[in-house]
Amino acid sequence: MLHTTQGIVLHNIKYADKRIISKIYTKDFGLISANIHIGNSPKSKIKSGVIQPLTQIEFVVSLKENKDIQQISEIKCLFVYTDLQANFNKLCIAQFLNEMLYKCIKEQTPNDDLFHLICHTYQWLDKVDANYADTHIYFLMELSKHLGFYPTNNYSKHLSYFNTLEGKFGGSTNSFPLGFDNWQSVLFSELFSYSITNQKKITRLERLALLDCVIHYYKMQLPGLTEIKSYRVLQEMSNDM
Fold it and tell me: Do the beta carbons of residue 20 and residue 33 sit within 8 Å?
């Protein structure tokens, strides 16, 4: 049966001269894998540029139950980025988020709130002129809500050490990455008071520490999470922000 839906491209694998297998997070069906015939000639129905990672699209898919790979016949771009692709720092953030989404999202069920969060974040990042340096950190906090392990906001004078296995603050510390020290825990606790569009100004050292904390929290909660290649790029990028 043919369906028209919206989605955002997360990852592509080329397996023939003019064919790719694309991982797309969709509004109506969650994560799907799709077989797409691409080309750049005037007669090609689907141009390669419209199916690049980060692209927000509307497409027609032939959805068949019990099939791992679906067929896409038509695609159009829904949102044209004006700055994200040309701004190195923004692009690094967006590519990191895309890699995290690709490795963390497995559900083939719809989640309107998550789909809106992803699309809105990329669009906001494209348009904003300043105060976006820690978008990836706040996004991962929001994403953890949808993945089922949003940390408990229970920091206090007596519960001042975050436990990455339990997802909450406790009275004693564990060695990293099983837990954060007091300084890391204080930084982490302050994330609850801010958001993607209301980011706290922090130093480069604090940014690197928070990114390390959030990544290791994810690894404790998702044991199968493999190496994040774009993580290294973000660490280097922090020198310039």
Answer: no
The pLDDT tens digits for 88-129 are 999 999 999 999 999 999 988 999 999 999 999 999 999 999
| Pick from 151, 177, 172, 153: nearest CA to 161 | 172
User: pLDDT per residue over 158-195, tens digit each?
Assistant: 999 999 999 999 999 999 999 999 999 999 999 999 99
Could you please report the per-residue DSSP string of 88-123? Answer: HHHHHHHHHHHHHHHHH----S--HHHHHHHHHHHH
The helix (H) or strand (E) run that includes residue 19 is: strand 19-26
pLDDT of residue 231: 87
Residues in the chain: 241
CA–CA dist 197, 47 (Å, integer): 34
Architecture per CATH, domain 88-240, reads as Up-down Bundle (1.20)
The CATH code for residues 2-79 is 2.40.50.140
Spatial separation of the C-alpha atoms in residues 53 and 49, rounded to whole Å:
9
